[in-house]
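agent> step 3/5: call structure_predict on target 'Bifunctional oligoribonuclease and PAP phosphatase NrnA' (Spiroplasma monobiae MQ-1).
agent> reason: downstream docking stage needs a structural representation; sequence fetched in step 2, passing through unchanged.
tool.input:
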Amino acid sequence: MENKSNELALLKVIEQYENIIIAKHVSPDWDTQGSAYALREIILNNFNNKNVYVVGEKMNFGTREEDESKLTEGIISTSLLITVDVANFERVDFEFKEKVKEVFKVDHHLEVDNFGKGKLVDPSAIACTQVITLWSNNCNLKLTKLGATYLYFGLITDSGRFLFEKTNGKTFLAAKILVEAGVIITEVYSELFLKKLELAKWHNKAFSMAEFKNNNEIAYIKVTSDFFETLNLGEEEVKSALTVLSGIKEIKIWALAYQTPGNENVKVSIRSRDFNINSVATNYNGGGHKLASGAKLNSWNELDNLITDLQDLIE
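tool.output (status=ok):
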């Protein structure tokens, strides 16, 4: 019942505002980007007289969304801000997030920061795109092929092609809804999983850079800012090398730590099949899910402590 009322609350708050800003999380992935682009499509195709702006960094391009240049102080101060796939207000990728009139949170992470006047949050969902798909369907909103395709990109990546633990019946219901809206699955898979040669070379190199601890139960890859600069790849593409450590029987927890050029912080993506890595990630300015979390270190000096804490989970 609570989720139903929250779905109606999102519908009602969209109806109330002429100007709507949709914000992603910093270092965007397909779930946040697909959610943002699809929600814009849904609003424009189902509500009259709406101005919808997507803000934040563009995934893999390192540039900002064009909509940001259209925003004025007057627009921002009268806008509804909808955040998608963002657990912490600090990670909302919008400089003027505190100057909007109202914030509404749409998410699927465990609640660690209860921000926003309203919210539609389902921690049992594998992806934020799942939450938005079911919301649009339950509210009988029109879903275009383009909007559905954006949602499918997020659903398929956050669920690991429907292999991750939190994949459930509602995930497949969402996939059914999206396919029936016109998604061409083969095209999505080709764009996501056909690698360009440069990316394949990076994955091969990344595995050779892996360091192993705890009798190979812990494995991690370090990408310094200097090395990052030599790669002709976007941030998400660099992060995708984390997959080279998955599916290996001996490795129980694996991670990729990287530093983008000009940034002092070190970002870490962590994965496991069995252990609650979120309990560690939350101690390092991060969090996420039980088996898939992220962390943000102040410097490389903190990495050893993080790895030690991950080892303690196993021991």
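agent> step 4/5: record observation. The two ends are 41 Å apart (CA to CA).
agent> proceeding.
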